[in-house]
Every structure is written in structure tokens, then in C-alpha cells.
């Protein structure tokens, strides 16, 4: 069960654990602390893992709250595409369909279960518990690069970099998206606050009371396929809100192909594509055409800058090839 809370003015600049103790009086302080350390408390797509972290008025937090009786995650032999691993971190290329963190309805088959099996004795643990340290997340149906900490020191160092959202130049997250239509000027900095949609708690929405959110988007090329136009867009994040790229691009009139939440109104456009492209889009199933293609961060121990690139997965490569068949593929040139 998820709980969403907004920090009131009375708890401005309070410790995270103390604020949650006030706002969630049905939970013990020990359980609240364990939820924080387990990465179950998040601000957008950033896990808040320090109980002592200060929070601010209007911070909108999400808590993944498992029932007390449920067991702790168990190791499972799930194949992983590992890009890098040492004693401190592991970088993986996550496929679409893989849930990151165990939660009600998804206690098994998650990335955490897979990492518990793969890492085994190399996990020195987070706060004395042998488990991987989740410092950021990708949606279940978004593929691409993720980094996970293997010990306390790495967990804290990486959490600090993600909390800065790259404003200090130490972190960079780059995405590739396929979207309906075209950005009006070929590129855009979308600066619009995002919050939970009051009419549908599963969705996020641009609303005045939302959290500050900034996405930089640029058209790489576009395809005139059948009677439709599809753009290939690169996007980088200056903030890390839940569903940020999906929400921001949809507000620009360029929702992601295959997005079941934010592209519903564009679903009929699939009939405008040529047959090969339409079949490639249908083969995506419920996944949105979004891929975390690049992740740069500084190693928590050596401070060396590391950069990892993930090529488009097979299903998105197939979609792009199908779009190219009739498409011009002409890069957008700003007049």
C-alpha cells in the first residue's frame, strides 16, 4: 500500500524520521526508520535514505508501506545485464517489465530480489542489513541504466549526488524517448511543477501546487510514417519527480508512444502508422517508449567520474527501424 503525504508548514526543516512519526502516528519510530533505510520513502523518483535528512514545507513524499506480516525480500536467481561491478557499486541495464523494489503485489521477481541473489556475500549491507541500497528508480516499464550501492558509505555518497539532481555537475541522467508529433522549436526546457493528480492517484500532473520540475528535451530526428509524425527525443533531468519526462512531454503535446497513463488520447494515432510500424508499436505491450540511455556519476570511493551508455533495447530498435521505412528521418533545424 502506498501513502502520499505533503509536508505541512509546521514541520518545515524537521528531520525526515521525526516528521513521518508525526504524520504517520500508526507506525512505530523503528518501523519508520527501517522504511527510510530500505529506500521505501521517496521524493519523486529519488529515494530518501537518511532518517536525519531535513524536509521542507510542501515536500510531497511517497511511502511504499508493506504489511507488517510480509516476509523480507528473498534472493531469486533472476538474470541481470551487469555493466559494472566492484566492492561499492553495481551498475545494471534494467529491462522493461522489471519492478525495482518489492511492494504489495510485487514481493518477488524484483530487481532487489535479483541483486540479493547475485551479490550474495559481497553485500556488506546498509545499516547492518545485508541488502542492496536503492538510490534511484526507473518505472517498471522504463528500461535502462541504474546504479545500486553495496554498502553504507556508497549508499550515502550516491544518495547525495542524486539529491543534487546533477546541479553540481557530478550526476547526469540522459533518456531517449519516442513521442507523437514534434517539439515546436525542436528543443525545449520544460519548467512546470508536478504533483499527484487529484482525480487519479496513479497519475502525476502539472499543477500549481506541485513540486518544481525541470526537463530539457531536444528532438534528435523525426519520422513521417504513414499519416503520422513521430519524434525521437533526448531528455535530461534537472529534477527527479515521479513520471517527470512522461508528464512533461505530454503537456507539450508530444506524449510517449505506448504510454498507458499519459498517451491514452493518442492511442488512435497508431492506426495512422504504416503496418510495420503499427505492429512494432503493438509489440511493446504496456511499456512506454522511454529508455534511460546514459548515466554519469562520481564513484563513491575513488571520486572517479564514470559514464555508462545503454543502447536501445531490441523492442525499441525494432520500432525505430519500422518508423524509418517510410520516414524522412530529417533532423529538426531551428530556423
Secondary-structure topology with pairs:
Elements: E1 2-6, H1 16-23, H2 29-37, E2 41-43, E3 46-47, E4 60-64, E5 82-85, E6 89-94, H3 111-119, E7 133-134, E8 143-149, H4 152-163, E9 172-180, E10 187-191, E11 194-196, E12 204-206, E13 214-225, E14 228-237, H5 244-251, H6 275-282, E15 290-298, E16 305-309, H7 314-324
Parallel strand pairs: 8-15
Antiparallel strand pairs: 1-4, 2-3, 2-4, 5-6, 6-8, 7-8, 9-14, 9-15, 10-13, 11-12, 13-14, 15-16
Structural commentary:
The chain is α+β, with helices and mostly antiparallel strands. It has seven helices and 16 strands. The strands form three sheets. Strands 5, 6, 7, 8, 9, 10, 13, 14, 15 and 16 form a ten-stranded mixed β-sheet that branches. Strands 1-4-2-3 form a four-stranded antiparallel β-sheet. Helix 1 crosses helix 2. The longest helix has 12 residues. It is globular.
| Biggest sheet features | 10 strands, mixed
Rounded to an integer in angstroms, the radius of gyration calculated over CA atoms is 20 Å
User: How do the SSEs run, as a string of H and E?
Assistant: EHHEEEEEHEEHEEEEEEHHEEH
Please state the overall shape, judged from the principal axes of the Cα atoms: globular
Structural class: alpha+beta
Mean pLDDT: 90
Share of residues in strands: 25-35%
- Percent range of helical residues: 10-25%
Separation of termini? 50 Å
Helical segment count: 7
Uncertain segments of ≥5 residues (pLDDT<50)?
none
Write down how many β-strands occur, each being a DSSP E stretch of 2 or more residues.
16
